[in-house]
Each structure stands twice: as C-alpha cells, then as structure tokens.
Amino acid sequence: MKIVVFGANGKVGHRVVAELLQRGHHVRAFVHSRSNLLPQHDNLEIVHGDACSAQDVTMALDSIDVAMSTLSSWKSSGEVLSTWASLVVNSAHATPALRVVSLTGSAVLQPKDHAAWYDYLNRVVLRIIAPRVFHDGAQHIDILASSSLDWHVLRSPVMRVKPSHTYQLSTHPPLPWQTIPYDAVARALCDIAEKPRVEHRTPFIVPY
Predict the structure, then answer these.
(1) What is the reported pTM?
(2) Residue pair 56/38 in contact by the 8 Å Cβ criterion
(3) What CATH number does residue 72 fall under?
(4) Total domains in the fold of the chain
(5) CA distance 7 to 13
(6) Domain span holding position 196
(7) 120-130 pLDDT tens trace
C-alpha cells in the first residue's frame, strides 16, 4: 500500500514510518520541518508542508491508500487535528476509497465506552489543564464520524520511551497509571492500517 504519514518527524510518527517501511509499504512522510529521524529508503518520499493547509493536504493525499495522522496539538496554538480532519474529509471526493487512521489521547471518551468513574475524572482533569487539546481530539473524531470515509482513531494513554511489549485494543480505557511504549503505539497504528476490517472505530490501546 501507499501510505502518507502526517507528523512523520514526531516521536510516534518517525516510528510509524520505520515500521511501515519494514513491512514493505511505500511511505510518503509529511513533515513541517526538516528531521534527521527519518531513514533513507527507496520506498520513502519526504514532503514538506502544513497539515492545516488545504493545498498541502490535498497534494499529500494524491494516489494514497491510507492517510495516517500522528499529529498533536500540545505544542501548537491551533486546533491541528480537527483542521487536518476537515481537510481530509473535504478532499475525500478525489480519494473515496481512502482509509484514515489517526491518534489521540485516551481521555477523549465516546458514548459506548466501558468507562469507570476514574476515567471521567481523568477527562475532567484534562479539560481543565489542556482544554484546547481535549477539544481538538474530540472534535476531530466527530468530523471523521460524520464522513463516509473508512476511518479509525486509536486512543492512547501517556506514551513513554521504554522496552516495547505486546498490546491489545479495547473498548475499556487504560487505567489512570498505565503508560504505553511509543513503539507499541506505532505498531498498533500500522496494524489498523493493514487490517481489512477493524472491529471498533475508536479503540483504546492498552498494555497486554
């Protein structure tokens, strides 16, 4: 498959690129600035652009099977995820078979989640300390859900640089103290991109 990775020079993004290349995919790495984290590879194309630019996003989606986002609003002044999602949906007429795989935090809950009281407390805390980040993650899910695209959003707890291990996808949020390796999140995103059918649209990733 030919896959574009938005945010490819980030902590998750460069790991996703490496994993996809190892699996034999053709990867278009969409980056905002130069990065030394990306490898040199015959199947890798690096393009520079702005994930909030309609022109740049439309060009990045040309001849693509899967659009993957590892973008984040934490260090941005704008709503990066929701803007990106809107641009992808608006470009869908040119790529109706496009699969979209995105990433956000586990505090963004959905109505059918099997959430406990402490999960709602975790959401309240995030809405207090980072309201823009929380709103951006939630809104980008709503935008994708309103489209006709084949979309999935992986919801992750805090990510750490630590030895990788197996993971599972669940409708139950991770426990408040649980963390997950960056490498496990990268593998999960790639697995979702490859699977012909994924049971849940917005699974949580939890350690296994």
Answers:
(1) 0.93
(2) no
(3) 3.40.50.720
(4) 1
(5) 6
(6) 2-207
(7) 888 888 888 87
